[in-house]
Amino acid sequence: MIRLKGEAVRTSGSKMARFSVKLIMLVALSAVVLSAPVISARCHHRREPYRSKAECVDCVGSVAELLAQNEDRHHTVYNHRGGFRAIGCGYNLDDNPDERRKELEAIQLDYDKVYDGEIRLDNMQISELLVFDAWRALDRTRQNIKRLDNFCCQMRAIFADIQHTAGSTDRFPRDDINEVIEKVDSKDFKEAAKELEKTDWCSKSRHKIRCYNNIDYLEQGCGRTE
């Protein structure tokens, strides 16, 4: 960042990164649109810890939207920049393979064939995996942020997205984003966005575009609209 008359101004490169995110928004959101009936069906059977099916759909949908926006979309297996084998929108095939195998079986896919690149996913299958990841990210984040369910769905989505990049629950950068959590808890979203930009998580090159996108979400607070 550079400073000009006391105001924080991002470099042109950073602005271009944020602009690029906006350009891919329509493509990314297509996965979420396809996910809607999947989310609704799963929330019908599993509402906990949500107060209603509507809240469940909203929160899982918010996470799915952000994951779809922040990840590239692949119909076949690929090597993710995070160092693991993935498919769809960053669906990590190396993270808890037994659990992933069961999820793939639930949508009539063979884990080994997917992993070996023998299967090409269609859009609905990518959406199914996106919902699995959204739910997993929320569950893992809830273990690290006890107040998570006091936040609006948009804020839960930001922390779930950060958890998604960390992988396992014990790798969540809790100390790094503690100030962000505190600002969100006090509903000071503008300050929360500033705190997020200061974190080590945001400074990592592989998170740069993701960071600025999440900052956009934070700045818009709980009243975020497209």
TrEMBL record:
<protein>
    <submittedName>
        <fullName>Uncharacterized protein</fullName>
    </submittedName>
</protein>
<dbReference type="InterPro" id="IPR023346">
    <property type="entry name" value="Lysozyme-like_dom_sf"/>
</dbReference>
<dbReference type="InterPro" id="IPR052619">
    <property type="entry name" value="Phage_lysozyme-like"/>
</dbReference>
<dbReference type="GO" id="GO:0031640">
    <property type="term" value="P:killing of cells of another organism"/>
</dbReference>
<keyword id="KW-0081">Bacteriolytic enzyme</keyword>
<dbReference type="GO" id="GO:0042742">
    <property type="term" value="P:defense response to bacterium"/>
</dbReference>
<dbReference type="GO" id="GO:0003824">
    <property type="term" value="F:catalytic activity"/>
</dbReference>
<keyword id="KW-0929">Antimicrobial</keyword>
<dbReference type="InterPro" id="IPR023347">
    <property type="entry name" value="Lysozyme_dom_sf"/>
</dbReference>
